[in-house]
């Protein structure tokens, strides 16, 4: 999941305008990346390994790639906020928790930050195979000066049991 982020600026009445721009951009980007190209592949963005440290995922790498996370990324009081988050476990095993990684990029594509958040099922229960859970809005890190877009994806999992 990736979306453009507005440049940091002093708070003004144009905040609602920026929010509208972000929502439209997020919807357009989601449509573009999910309807025209395989997940994560766009022109100029060749297939790459999942974000995160080298070797992350280990023996669970196939299970990691069977997870999907979607949501809307906005800016709220200087923080990246993820709302309407949905995690789908497309694997054949129950997952106790997953690591969601959110990366902010500059206008030239340089990675500025990499925040990781552990997510899991309601009441600390495992997420069953072929099951989707939803999340209330949550923070995905502090917006850095110069950040123009952010991307969040699942980079590691802990199978139940």
Shape: elongated
Q: What's the number of helices?
A: 2
CA distance, first residue to last residue: 29 Å
Largest sheet: spatial strand order: 1-8-4-5
Report the count of strand segments.
Answer: 8
Structural classification: alpha+beta
* Rg, nearest Å: 16 Å
As a percent range, the share of strand residues is: 35-45%
**Mean residue pLDDT:** 77
Count of the separate structural domains: 1
Low-confidence stretches: 31-57
What pattern of helices and strands is seen along the backbone?
A: EHHEEEEEEE
Amount of helix:
10-25%
Biggest sheet character: 4 strands, antiparallel
In short:
Helices cover 16% and strands 43% of the residues.
Question: How does this structure look, described?
Answer:
By secondary structure, the protein is α+β, with helices and mostly antiparallel strands. It has one domain. The protein contains two helices and eight strands; from the N terminus they run E-H-H-E-E-E-E-E-E-E. It has helices at residues 15-35, 61-65, and strands spanning 2-4, 67-76, 79-89, 95-106, 111-120, 131-135, 138-142, 147-159. The strands form two sheets. Strands 1-8-4-5 form a four-stranded antiparallel beta sheet. Strands 2, 3, 6 and 7 form a four-stranded antiparallel beta sheet that branches. It starts with a strand and ends with a strand. The relative contact order is 0.24. Residues 31-57 have low confidence and may be disordered.
């Amino acid at each position: 999941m990736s979306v453009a982020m507005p440049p940091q600026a002093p708070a003004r009445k144009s905040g609602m305008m920026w929010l509208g721009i972000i929502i439209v951009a997020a919807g357009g980007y989601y449509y573009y990346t999910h309807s025209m190209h395989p997940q994560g592949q766009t022109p100029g963005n060749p297939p790459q390994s999942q974000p995160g440290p080298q070797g992350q995922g280990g023996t669970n790498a196939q299970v990691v790639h069977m997870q999907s996370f979607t949501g809307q990324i906005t800016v709220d009081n200087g923080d990246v906020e993820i709302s309407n988050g949905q995690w789908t476990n497309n694997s054949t095993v129950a997952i106790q928790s997953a690591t969601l990684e959110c990366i902010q990029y500059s206008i030239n594509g340089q990675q500025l930050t990499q925040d990781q958040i552990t997510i899991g099922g309601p009441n600390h229960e495992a997420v069953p195979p072929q099951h989707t859970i939803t999340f209330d809005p949550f923070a995905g890190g502090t917006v850095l000066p110069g950040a123009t877009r952010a991307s969040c994806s699942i980079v590691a999992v802990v199978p139940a049991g």
